[in-house]
What we know:
By secondary structure, the protein is an alpha+beta fold. The protein has ten helices and 18 strands. It has a six-stranded antiparallel beta sheet with strand order 12-17-16-15-14-13, with helices on both faces. The chain binds FE2/S2 (inorganic) cluster (FES) and fe (ii) ion. FE2/S2 (inorganic) cluster (FES) binds near residues 79, 81, 82, 84 and 104.
Amino acid sequence: MTATDPRSPLLPTPPGTAYTDPAVFAREQARVFEAVWVCAARAGDLPRPGAFRTVPVGRESVLLTRDRADRVRAFLNVCRHRGARLCTEEAGEVRRAFRCPYHAWTYGLDGRLVAAPNLGELPAAERDRRGLAAVHVREWLGYVWVCLADDPPSFDETVRGAVADALGSADAVAAYGVDRLEPGRREVYDVRANWKLIVENFMECYHCATIHPELTGVLPEFAEGRAAQADGGRGAAFGADVDGFTVDGGSGFGRLGGVGEDRDRRYYAVTLPPQVFLNLVPDHVIVHRLLPLAPDRTRVECDWLYDPEVLASGADVARSAELFDRVNRQDFAACERCQPAMASRVYRDGGVLVPLEHHIAGFHRWLADRMADAPAGG
Length: 378
Ligand code: FES
Ligand SMILES: [Fe+2]
């Protein structure tokens, strides 16, 4: 019986080359990551005018900053003179302008070209045209989201709406007040695996019993392999003897302000393709952001967000954050175990999804639809 046999409970995955081929990766960067809204940075990482971050989005580097009016701005990180990378640091702060290290063209925090040595007579129209190339930017859930498309898809439909649909209601995420939470811990993981392996892994729980002893200790139903996100925002219940979402099931912190009884003692997970995972528990929120760097390499930035009052009280979040840090390391090790085998001849036609994984085919369809769209910028 093969995966294509109609009597088989198995569905096919994409072929191995989808996870290894540089040409596939380049098309994904162009048609997906440069065409949709991408969650680029925590807004609080740009605490004041002149603070900046550089983030790889698709094949571009995006420069995020805050202007004099405290508005978040996003630009392509490319000098308009002869193309030097304007900022090479991942994060930093300038006083009032970005000065290119090559010939000293200087740009205001709003991206306008404000000075170019020996070019005092540059016509105003020419000067206006040579400002930094702006990128569409939005703030939501305390994060900065950018879109490189000239004509971005609706943020409300493709981001807010998709999260609301996954959780079963638009109010569900609002209850956690994510935008007022603050990071109690942040980890950046350099994962030697294709970004799709990480998405697929996050969507299923077939592996939970095998590799996640601490997580199944807190969420016993995960040991049966049913993913919390497989059926419309059901959430997974804490075990009867579990006090909190911590590495040993010991107590965590008080419920976040808007979280009601119905969502108490439950874990909710949302995969927002292509690159955001939201994890909601009563006392904190964990946000993963994937930044694909190569066919076999993905940077994953993970924030553990807590009530600012909990953090200000000096409470120790170590046991709380430790749970998902272990889960992350277990998951990423599994993805890294699969990556080299994607190039094996036996995986040329791909692998299979068991019924507990069938919802992953929805992600594959979503991706196939984006890949079939007209090329966005390349
Ligand atoms: S390349 Fe930036 S000033 Fe010349
Ligand atoms: Fe996992």
